[in-house]
Amino acid sequence: MKPDIHPAYRFVVFQDVSNGFKFLTRSTIKTKDTIKWEDGNEYPVISVDVSSASHPFYTGNQKSLDTAGRIDRYYKKYGLQRDSKI
């Protein structure tokens, strides 16, 4: 392999913003935010919307998302009416 062309593969904490669940894994993703982990070390942190702790498939619970607001904004943006066919 060529030197200095691959991104750094390092430990990163992924944090679910919906419930605070965190897990430590390795990744090449870049971030400037850091968090202090349970072992006392400081690691880069990535905020995610959905993880295995909040996904309905893994939890068995249905979570209501605010898709109605997104749909209404779409119709308003393109001047459509809710009952019209696209």
Defining key terms:
86 residues; alpha+beta; 4-stranded mixed sheet
Strand order of the largest sheet: 2-1-4-3
Described by its quaternary structure, the protein is single chain
Tally of DSSP helical segments = 2
What is the residue-mean pLDDT, rounded to a whole number?
Answer: 84
Rg on CA atoms, Å: 20 Å
Summed up, what is this model?
The protein is α+β, with helices and mostly antiparallel strands. It has two helices and four strands.
Any overview of this molecule?
- By secondary structure, the chain is an alpha+beta fold.
- The protein has one domain (10-77).
- The chain is 17% helix and 27% strand.
- The model has no long low-confidence stretch (mean pLDDT 84).
Can you lay out the helices and strands and say which pair or pack?
Layout: E1 10-16, E2 22-27, E3 34-36, E4 42-48, H1 56-59, H2 67-77
Parallel strand pairs: 1-4
Antiparallel strand pairs: 1-2, 3-4
